[in-house]
């Protein structure tokens, strides 16, 4: 049987790959693994939260049943952003936290992600131990009886209020006089965003897409569909618009002119601000190889270091922890402010953006528009299988073709060809000063890969 955990937990379409039976087994296996680190007779404590998908209750009930069957106590946090689960796990001194969410994916998808007791994503080693039980030794696990069965405590209101208190305390500005429009993606932020921004009495906040019905999460709204927010911010005269994804671990924004503010631009502005306040350790911001060349240019011009990891917030976080950096993220808006959180947090990011905007006295277009985006073209080229991906990526003809095209760019662009980590695809990404140049090079490389693949 295949590996359960991907780069961001277990994901799938509910009842077509991810179902109640699997969730029960994962809950039971998680409790068994956690119990091995406890004293005799001491029960593991696990927090659990979800976004607004129709399948959330189904999976939560099964996970809780598995956890309690194996003797773990559970704190049910209700609907709460993914980073809220991580924060409450640490705050309540739990042994682990489980999130039921598929982030920015459509409603029919869902997922199971596990944090450790320090609020970080579970290690590969512990994920493998859980997988081994689910896939190979589930039937041999003894079920608890009598007083050893786990209990459930429903702590949703108090836990989310504590989390909101924490977020509000990360900035000192009162944000007075600002007008913002917030898109909750009909997701987890629907339960917390309005309460968070209401803490700032002199901040004028309007909230949209905060009426979840189980199937409208990420549906033409939120950080993956930002055009409507852009139009509303521009037409309504707002200072800035904020957009979350389904589980609110990402945040993108739009300036007063309706222009997108992406993760690269957020990192650029916040990096400079942290440096000016003496809080940017190593004078370094951590991004991924997918960050736009405009960010690289901005960093050089402002004498900041940019360290790039492979794609994925897990890789960004590992680099930050290893080297002591405090800010990192992805172009998609998954931002990590390590002084305040152990994982990407959209609402935390929104507050850092608003605080910086308020203190600067500038417009959002002036502040965040300083980091220019080069035109970018991405073409996904289907290949036969994993072996084909490896064969093509190691081919001399591909290396030579990339070098020739880089010579054509002459330093005014960037080429990134990489295999997909989850699909039979090779991704060709080209950035250049002009759209036509980026498109031409991307198409030529994609056509070359297609011809060699047949």
Q: Could you walk me through the main structural features you see in this protein, from its secondary elements to its overall organization?
A:
- The structure is a single chain.
- This protein is an alpha/beta fold and 454 residues long.
- Helix content is 39%, strand content 21%.
- The protein contains 15 helices and 19 strands.
- Strand 13, helix 9 and strand 14 form a beta-alpha-beta unit.
- Helix 1 packs across helix 4 and helix 14 runs antiparallel to helix 15.
- The longest helix is centred in the C-terminal third of the chain and has 19 residues.
- It is globular.
User: What percent of the residues sit in helical stretches (DSSP H or I)?
Assistant: 25-40%
Spatial shape: globular
Evaluate the radius of gyration. Answer: 23 Å
- Protein structure class: alpha/beta
Q: What average pLDDT do the residues reach?
A: 95
Largest sheet: 7 strands, mixed
The portion of residues forming beta strands comes to: 15-25%
Strand order of the largest sheet: 2-1-6-5-3-4-7
Question: What is the distance, rounded to the nearest whole angstrom, between the alpha carbons of the first and last residues?
Answer: 30 Å
Question: So how many helices?
Answer: 15
Low-pLDDT residue intervals, each spanning 5 or more residues: none
| Total number of strands | 19
């Amino acid at each position: 049987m295949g590996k359960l955990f991907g780069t961001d937990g277990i994901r799938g379409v509910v009842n077509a790959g991810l179902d109640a039976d699997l969730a029960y087994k994962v809950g039971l296996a998680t409790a068994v693994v956690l119990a091995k680190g406890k004293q005799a007779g001491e029960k593991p404590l696990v927090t659990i939260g979800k976004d607004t998908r129709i399948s959330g209750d189904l999976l939560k009930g099964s996970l809780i049943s598995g956890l309690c069957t194996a003797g773990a106590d559970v704190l049910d946090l209700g609907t709460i952003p993914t980073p809220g689960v991580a924060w409450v796990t640490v705050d309540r001194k739990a042994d682990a936290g489980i999130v039921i969410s598929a982030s920015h994916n459509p409603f029919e998808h869902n997922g199971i992600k596990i944090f450790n007791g320090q609020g970080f994503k579970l290690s590969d080693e512990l994920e493998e131990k859980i997988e081994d039980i689910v896939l190979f030794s589930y039937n041999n696990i003894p079920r608890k009886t009598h007083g050893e069965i786990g209990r459930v405590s429903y702590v949703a209101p108090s836990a989310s209020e504590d989390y909101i208190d924490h977020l509000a305390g990360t900035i000192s500005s009162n944000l007075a006089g600002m007008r913002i429009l917030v898109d909750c993606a009909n997701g987890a932020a629907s339960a917390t965003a309005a309460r968070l921004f209401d803490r700032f009495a002199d901040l004028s906040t309007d909230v949209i897409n905060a009426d979840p019905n189980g199937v409208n999460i990420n549906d033409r709204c939120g950080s993956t569909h930002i055009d409507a927010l852009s139009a509303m911010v521009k037409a309504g005269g707002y200072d800035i618009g904020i957009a979350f994804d389904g589980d609110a671990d990402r945040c993108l924004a739009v300036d007063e002119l309706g222009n997108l503010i992406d993760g690269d631009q957020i990192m650029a502005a916040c990096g400079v601000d942290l440096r000016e306040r003496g809080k940017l350790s190593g004078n370094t911001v951590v991004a991924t190889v997918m960050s736009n060349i405009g960010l690289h240019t901005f960093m050089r011009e402002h004498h900041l270091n940019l360290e790039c990891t492979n794609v994925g917030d897990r890789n960004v976080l590992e680099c930050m922890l290893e080297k002591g950096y405090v800010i990192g993220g992805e172009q998609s808006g998954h931002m990590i402010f390590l002084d305040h959180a152990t994982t990407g947090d959209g609402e935390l990011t929104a507050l850092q953006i608003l605080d910086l905007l308020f203190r600067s006295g500038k417009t959002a277009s002036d502040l965040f528009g300083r980091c220019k985006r080069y035109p970018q073209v991405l073409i996904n080229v289907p290949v036969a299988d994993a072996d084909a991906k490896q064969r093509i990526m190691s081919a001399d003809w591909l290396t030579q073709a990339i070098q020739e095209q880089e010579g054509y760019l002459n330093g005014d662009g960037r080429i990134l060809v990489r295999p997909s980590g989850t699909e039979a695809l090779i991704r060709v990404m080209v950035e250049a000063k002009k759209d036509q140049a980026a498109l031409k090079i991307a198409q030529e490389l994609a056509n070359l890969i297609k011809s060699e693949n047949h």
